[in-house]
Specification:
This protein has two domains: 202 residues, Nucleotidyltransferase, domain 5 (2-Layer Sandwich); 228 residues, Nucleotidyltransferase, domain 5 (2-Layer Sandwich). The chain has 14 helices and 21 strands. The longest helix is centred in the C-terminal third of the chain and has 25 residues. The chain is α/β, with parallel strands linked by helices. Strands 3-2-1-6-13-12 form a six-stranded mixed sheet, sandwiched between helices. A six-stranded mixed sheet has the order 16-17-15-14-20-21, sandwiched between helices.
């Protein structure tokens, strides 16, 4: 079996997947995040303890291979004794935004198809170097969250190939403490504690989900929605946006044109607690009590800044169009619509560049929300197909390993889409136009 470790923003999970892609054992424990203003950090010592506890719950002789994936970036600084010098800087930490002007101004970045964002690994490294020089200088290793898990498993420092893409190539010329670069499916080393099973590289969470998914033909797309929403569509050719609103990454011998939001699931959790202080079922009932268009209320879901296609880390959330007749139900509907409009803004941008979006699969925790799934179909105007198993990161990572082991053919995947959800109506065009007009006015 394949043992997959998945470190998210809220939990650490370990899953045993058999040759047929079935989950045979699942272990999970919560992970707390320290948030204070622009700060978003977690304790790598807690990650280490979660990994150790998970291994104690595993039948080690049954493990054929291991891989680990985590949220993007998550900078970990280790001293000479492999102890963290400071908490890990998470994707949602906005302090590295101060580094963006200098990074964007560099000739290398101007020539790349990528747009720097505060949550990426490179701005975190620059922030540490410039604002915490003692930690930067005293660190034996500077690892991203995925690399740290792999280091705990193997004792080998590594950085996956797809993280280096947002660093305009190989960053080790500037930062010599990141470890060797590894490709998806490559063996890092035998595990130190799991009967010597090989540890394979699979990249950070959304990249692992994409690379291990069942995207087969141009136009096949995947929406991964959890804490954030990441959207990518398969293309035959590399499509480069001159404005760098969305970006291409290699996908075998083809390409994936991608864009991500800064927050989605976190927005719903905020709205549930702040607007309703109740259950998500109650939240959904409120959404249904307001008509499409939310009686003129528009919500911009930028509670952690804005990524594609806007790229403004200082953007903030907004309710617009409130009147004395506005109800709490209208606010709830506007929140759902705001998330769908932010997705449609990415899809529209991709289509403006000439890419076709014809078959969209849904994965991640938010794809369990039937109301949100239907609204995505309605707003985008095309059918969507939720995955049969929403844990696309785990199954994607397992699929990458299974291909390397010869259990799956090239391109084979344990991620399989379920029945299509067709659009029911097209009542959102005016509301989406209102959303885009509001963006132009205030951003």
């Amino acid at each position: 079996m394949i043992l997959v470790f998945d470190l998210g923003t809220q939990s650490f999970r370990a899953t045993l997947v058999d040759r047929d892609g079935r989950c045979q054992l699942a272990y999970s424990c919560p992970i707390e995040t320290h948030r204070d203003g622009s700060i978003a950090e977690q304790d790598p010592v807690v990650w280490r303890g979660a990994l150790k506890a998970a291994l104690q719950n595993i039948d080690k002789p049954s493990v054929t291979a291991i891989n680990a994936t985590a949220t993007l970036s998550g900078l970990v600084c280790l001293d000479a004794n492999d102890e963290p010098l400071r908490p890990a800087i998470l994707y949602g930490d906005r302090r590295p935004a101060v580094q963006l002007p200098a990074i964007e101004a560099s000739a290398q970045y101007q020539q790349s198809p990528f747009r720097a964002y505060s949550g990426d690994f490179l701005p975190q490294l620059h922030y540490l170097r410039d604002h915490e020089p003692s930690h930067f200088q005293n660190a034996k290793l500077l690892l991203d969250a995925t690399g740290y898990l792999n280091y705990l498993l193997t004792g080998q420092p590594t950085l996956d190939r797809y993280t280096t893409l947002t660093c305009y190539g190989d960053p080790t010329g500037d930062f010599l403490k990141l470890g060797r670069i590894v490709d998806p499916g490559a063996v890092i080393a035998p595990a130190l504690d799991c009967a010597g099973a090989p540890v394979l590289s699979v990249s950070y969470d959304s990249a692992a989900a994409y690379l291990g998914s069942s995207l087969l033909e141009p136009g096949d797309a995947l929406d991964i929605s959890g804490t954030v929403t990441s959207f990518g569509v398969l293309t035959n050719d590399q499509i480069i946006d001159p404005q760098r609103r969305v970006f291409p990454i290699p996908y075998g011998d083809r390409w994936l044109l991608r864009g991500s939001t800064a927050m989605s699931g976190g927005v719903l959790e905020w709205a549930r607690q702040t607007l309703f202080d109740g259950t998500f079922a109650e939240f959904d009932q409120a959404v249904l009590a307001s008509p499409p268009g939310a009686n003129g209320v528009t919500f911009l879901p930028f509670l952690a800044g804005a990524r594609a296609p806007i790229w403004d880390p200082a953007a903030t959330g907004t309710f617009h169009g409130l009147t004395a007749q506005t109800t709490r139900a209208d606010l709830a509907r506007a929140v759902y619509e705001g998330l769908c409009f932010s997705l449609q803004h990415i899809v529209e941008t991709i289509e403006q560049l000439g890419a076709s979006v014809s078959n969209t699969q849904l994965g991640g925790g938010l794809s369990r929300n039937a109301l949100l799934n239907q609204m995505k179909a309605d707003v985008t105007g095309r059918p969507v197909r939720p995955q049969l198993d929403t844990e696309v990161t785990t199954l994607g990572a397992a699929s990458i390993a299974a291909r390397a082991l010869g259990w799956l053919p090239p391109g084979g995947s344990y991620c399989q889409p379920g029945p299509a959800i067709a659009p029911k109506h097209s009542a959102y065009h005016q509301a989406f136009d209102r959303y885009k007009a509001l963006l132009q006015k205030i951003l």
